[in-house]
């Protein structure tokens, strides 16, 4: 793992840059489908995009939380140039978060879909009972 671009609720995604076994840099991004789809390559396979979207809709209709996963191959030159920008942003003494967001935007684009996942969010212990108590009290 070369870099980790952290998740936050504004970004609705996280990414990692890794060096694959062939020595090339690859960006992997996971996040909300709306965020990932907005960052897909212009020439992305529309059939794969539509099929993945339908699968995620079926997962969501089944009560599951979905995440879309995408990737982008990076040239060594692009990675090194971006890495310098990102490192400067993480070291900024003023407006660090904004600078990091700007650096992230420079690389999280032209993505290709890998697929989607579906997760069951289990309720924490005591939550069903708390909801039932609120419901009985007439609180919605």
Automatic annotation (TrEMBL):
Gene3D superfamilies noted in UniProt: Calcium-transporting ATPase, cytoplasmic domain N, HAD superfamily/HAD-like
Keyword Transport: yes
GO molecular function: ATPase-coupled intramembrane lipid transporter activity; nucleotide binding
Pfam family, one: Cation_ATPase
Keywords, sorted A to Z: Transport
InterPro entries in UniProt: ATPase_P-typ_cyto_dom_N (IPR023299), HAD_sf (IPR023214)
Gene Ontology terms describing biological process: phospholipid translocation
GO CC annotations, alphabetized: plasma membrane
Localization of this protein: Endomembrane system
Name listed for the protein in its UniProt record: Metal cation-transporting ATPase
Species in which this protein is naturally found: Dendrothele bispora (strain CBS 962.96)
């Amino acid at each position: 793992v070369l870099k980790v671009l952290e998740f936050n609720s504004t970004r609705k995604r996280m990414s990692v840059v890794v060096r694959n076994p062939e020595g090339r840099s690859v960006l992997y991004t996971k996040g909300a489908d709306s965020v990932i789809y907005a960052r897909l390559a212009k020439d992305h396979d529309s059939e794969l995009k539509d099929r993945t979207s339908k699968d995620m809709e079926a997962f969501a209709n089944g009560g599951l939380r979905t995440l879309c996963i995408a990737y982008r191959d990076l040239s060594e030159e692009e990675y090194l140039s971006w890495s310098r920008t990102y490192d400067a942003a993480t070291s900024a003494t003023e407006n660090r978060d904004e600078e990091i967001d700007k650096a992230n935007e420079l690389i999280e684009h032209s993505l290709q879909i890998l697929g989607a996942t579906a997760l069951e969010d289990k309720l924490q212990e005591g939550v069903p009972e708390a909801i039932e108590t609120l419901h009985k009290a007439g609180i919605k």
